[in-house]
Amino acid sequence: MLVLKDVTAHYGTSQALFGMSLALNAGSVVTLLGRNGMGKTTTINTIMGIVKASGGSITFDGEELVGRASFRTANLGLGLVPEGRQIFPNLSLRENLVATASNHLGVADPWTIDKVFALFPELETRVSSMGNLLSGGEQQMLAIGRALMTNPRLLILDEATEGLAPLVRRKIWDALEQVRAEGMSILVVDKNLADLMRIADHHHIVQRGEVVWSGTTEDLRADEATRRQYLEF
Ligand code: ATP
């Protein structure tokens, strides 16, 4: 579904991606792992067209994404839950959800506000609250709901559980498992390896702007040396 081949990216003269290659099959949950500053966020932002690739190819169901404007990439069915949530602080929870609602792809059973509330019941009681008055966990659930309202086929999450209490993290992973059970493909960056091993099928470890290890959850569980070398923080 998503294929990155030899992708490079720069911030000015400083290179951040040095030939990123990875693949994600439809219906799977795939992670990008690695320590801080290794290029995971840059990879996601390059897929979304927020950072421009300086070389290589990124295809989504065969369509080239390199050189495409961000909104056109989103319209192809990629939904981003960005690092730091970035919800609209001066809009109510409901308005945040309505703001992104679209169904460009003519999905048969599109996401609605009620469907988001069924996934995250705690949001319903806060429907009129302003974005900036929501707790961190509520903001994160809202950020996920807002991405779902675009009816993506691939949901991309960058540090979706950062700074959240274990109970809230659990709610978010449970919700993502539910979404996945409905057929959603998911690409996720997170630091909570134990949670990711529970939900993900395939992992890519990113080190200095390239993938240095790929494998299944079973492979990663069995490979203590790799975990110790690249993933202990
Ligand atoms: P983290 O978990 O800390 O977000 P990451 O693996 O997502 O880390 P990136 O944020 O993609 O890593 O950073 C990759 C490299 O690019 C780092 O060396 C970082 O300093 C650099 N970088 C990231 N954003 C910028 C920017 N806006 N301008 C310049 N350099 C940047």
TrEMBL record:
- The chain positions of domain ABC transporter read 2-233
* UniProt keyword annotations, A-Z: Amino-acid transport, ATP-binding, Nucleotide-binding, Transport
Q: Name one Pfam family in it.
A: ABC_tran
Instruction: Check the record and name the InterPro entries matching this protein.
Output: AAA+_ATPase, ABC_transporter-like_ATP-bd, ABC_transporter-like_CS, BCAA_Transport_ATP-bd_LivF, P-loop_NTPase
GO MF annotation: an example: ATP binding
Entry similarity comment: Belongs to the ABC transporter superfamily.
Official protein name in the record: ABC transporter ATP-binding protein
- Organism equals Arenibacterium halophilum
